[in-house]
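FW: tagging you since you asked about this chain on Friday. Here's the raw sequence from the shared folder, copied in full. Didn't touch anything.
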Amino acid sequence: MNKIYKVLATSALMAMVAMPMASAQDVPPASTHTGQGNVQHQVKSVPGTMGQISNYVSDEHGTWLTVSGRGLAASDQSEIRLAIQEDTKIIDAKGNKVELQSIVDNNQSVKAFYSPAITKSLPAQGQALTLIAMDYNMTGIEGTISEINERGILVEGTSIYEGYDESIILHLDPKIKIVDQQGTTLASSDLEVGMSIKSFYGPAVALSMPPQSTTNYIQVQTEAGEPEHEVPAGTEGIVTNVEDGKVTVIGSPLETGGVNYVILTVDKDTEIVDGDGKPLTADALKESVRVEAFYGQVMTMIYPAQTHADKIVVSEVSAPKIEGTITATERATKDQLYINVGSDQNTNNDVILNISEDTQVITPLGFEAELKPGTKIVAYHSPVMTKSLPPITAAEVILVQSEE
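HL: got it, structure written out here
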């Protein structure tokens, strides 16, 4: 059977169609294959961030940029690192296609729309769907309101993008949006001297003393309460690599947070135990072992995410590993992949893998993958297999190998 399965790789990055809108509002849902042979609709809300490109990297590993500014909705990111793909739509405010390099060279502000499936790292990471180059540059200040009068508010603080100290009088646009950190709308009358705020203004700035400009957005920073005990993030999955004091775990994020693909540093501060809580040494961390790994909510922004392992619970059950090539055959149904184990002429060791929404599919750069005939993979599967020839089992992790 010559069937192509399209699945989503790393963090379930969704191939959604983004519309060039000014906010992250409703868009027509796109469809994607989940690897189960059926089609599911995506969510209708596309998150977005408006701001300046604060970091840009384009090399043999891919193209990434970081947008720093403010979320278009209360739940959207104020800063996010985005992967740019061939199907990322890059346009100006009028809908005309533009080159990404020209946006970077001209230091233009952008509105970036991205998949809702993002990591919990700082900043969050995701896949860019649409990038809109604006006709102006954003300028922002983070500081304290020191005076309020009929002209507006005097803010003293730090430039968000330049990092220098500044003071500026901000006139409030009649259509200004004022919100707190939870996204609750506030009135201009709610502003008080001493409030900490984050505001974007311009592009026109009067060179008076102090400078003056107009703002249409203010976020009031609510007072921090008592520090809360951080709930650890984590991943329940399979160890796929152990090297130089680092352990790679692929599986499912915990409900408290985490990612499906993470490289963990293991050292003397890492607690390693078995299912009964009995202490173990780092020697227990071997490839194919099932673990539940706990770590902090803050992770590096590279792919895959990397952080320190606080605690690892090692299971007695391991996940068998196979390497081979996906092969077209009528012996596999629409929900299955036939794997030529060893990529040879011997069929006695071949395996049929059941693919489900729980199957984690990882690609070298984290982009969408096609599980099609000819694709070389490494797979970790359930120890439970049928006694048929070839045996059938459930695929838990599939690593798509780079094409030569």
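FW: The chain has four domains: 5-133, 139-221, 233-318, 321-400.
HL: agreed, and The chain has a mean pLDDT of 83.
FW: great, closing this out.
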